[in-house]
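Entry 12.
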Amino acid sequence: MPTARVNGVDLYYEETGQGFPLVWSHEFGGDHRSWEQQVRYFGRRYRVVTYNHRGYPPSEVPKDANGYSQETLIEDLHQLLRQLGIGQAHIAGCSMGVNVALNFALAHPAMTKSVVVVGGGAGSVERDTFVSRQRATAEAIEREGIEALVRNFASNPTRRSFRLKDPRGWDEFVGYVREHSAPACAHLIRGVMLRRPTVEEIEPRLRELRVPALIVVGDEDEPCVEPSLMMRQLIPGAGLLVVPRTGHTVNLEEPGLFNLHVAEFLAAVEQNRWAP
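Predicted 3D structure (tokens):
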């Protein structure tokens, strides 16, 4: 089982294929397996790296709530790439992983060939509603365990289209969620999701970002549609893909369409044809 000692914890990671590095950072509800359909596709021509954030077994699960913050997750990724000898990579993320990927690009632009932003920006609009719901979810997880998170996902409108489109894929997703650490999920909500900066708060830095960006959002992912539009307007080298009748996890719901557009984006970047 490959692990790397980074930033005080052991992180589990997987590598597939050869070529220019392409790194995927997973969402709050997922883990490295969330990217399986991307690994199989892009592993044919890239050195694909997936990993589990701290708090997601078999990566180490710190017990202390202070071990979880967005800055910590960003530094985890930074040190992981250094350990793997990767000086520059395409960095992609979904949801919580977007905040890691995008803020990694802001902190380490020379290491970022491009960034793919999937379902990003939740909590940037209707902030009070977002905060109250996330706090309630963390409290429910602490009271009832991981099944509270499973129920939350099952009733979440941004997950509904995935559940209806692909029942088999949904059941697989839920099975993975049940393997997660309930205490770590509560710590991640409070330490990462509720404390990460909104799109507006990093607006000046986004305007200065000179890394090519592909922003992807499902049109049924309501909390992320407006923030995705904002990011498209703020990042000079950004393009926006809106996928119809799709929710929060575009890569899981529409893997063929997602892989096609990401492949075209990466090819354009590598040929210096992604318009500034």
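Annotation: The two ends are 41 Å apart (CA to CA). The chain has one domain: 3-270.
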